[in-house]
Amino acid sequence: MTSPEERLAELGLRLPEVVPPLAAYVPAVVTGSYVYTSGQLPMRDGSLLTTGKVGADVTADEAYDCARQCALNALAAIAAVAGGDLSRVKRVVKTVVFVASTPDFIGQPVVANGASELFGAVFGDAGVHARSAVGVSVLPLDAPVEVELVVELSA
User: Fold this and answer.
1) CA distances from 18 to 43, 66, 70 (A)
2) How far is Cα 43 from Cα 50, in angstroms, rounded to an integer?
């Protein structure tokens, strides 16, 4: 059986460094057997992948890629509090995807698939989760997408 990290490598991906907080919070918190992440932005190597509103400055495809990067950042935050081992993730429970979009853009669920499809590829059936995809007017740093994640850990 391949590990989540091996599945990421098969996808040509690796866990990034945990993105440092932008304000007074921590990237992830463990309570009981659950990990709750803070909202993760599409940061790669210290910079946002892009900025702006989906439906104006940012295409749905670019936003999908942003959601995928947010998901990778969330997995890095989880690994950091789970002893560096994503194999401890028993189940992805809930994902919330915020999409900064124009009032007429209605493709938030398609953008959110950037995160959801990654979780399925990395965790298989354990990556199938409940989800909300929410359109908002603005996100921190003018990011187009932000992702929160709740996972259950095994002992």
Assistant:
1) 10, 16, 11
2) 9
**Cβ neighbourhood burial of 1 (10 Å; 0-12, 13-18, 19+):** exposed
Query: Which residues are paired to 47 by β-bridges?
Result: 44
Q: Confidence band (pLDDT; 50, 70, 90) for 135? A: very high
What span, in angstroms and rounded, lies between the C-alpha atoms of 91 and 77?
16
Strand order in the sheet with 28-31: 28-31, 34-37, 145-153, 89-100, 130-136
Asked if 36 and 74 count as a contact pair (C-beta separation under 8 A), the reply is no
Beta strands in the chain (DSSP E): 28-31, 34-37, 43-44, 47-48, 89-100, 130-136, 145-153
Do the Cβ atoms of 15 and 122 come closer than 8 Å? Answer: no
Task: Tell me the per-residue pLDDT of 68-125, one tens digit each, with 9 for 90 and over.
Answer: 999 999 999 999 999 999 999 999 999 999 999 999 999 999 999 999 999 999 999 9
- The four Cα atoms 80, 151, 124, 154 give a dihedral, to 10 degrees, of 80
Cβ-based neighbours of 150, under 8 Å, separated by 6 or more: 34, 35, 36, 37, 92, 93, 94, 95
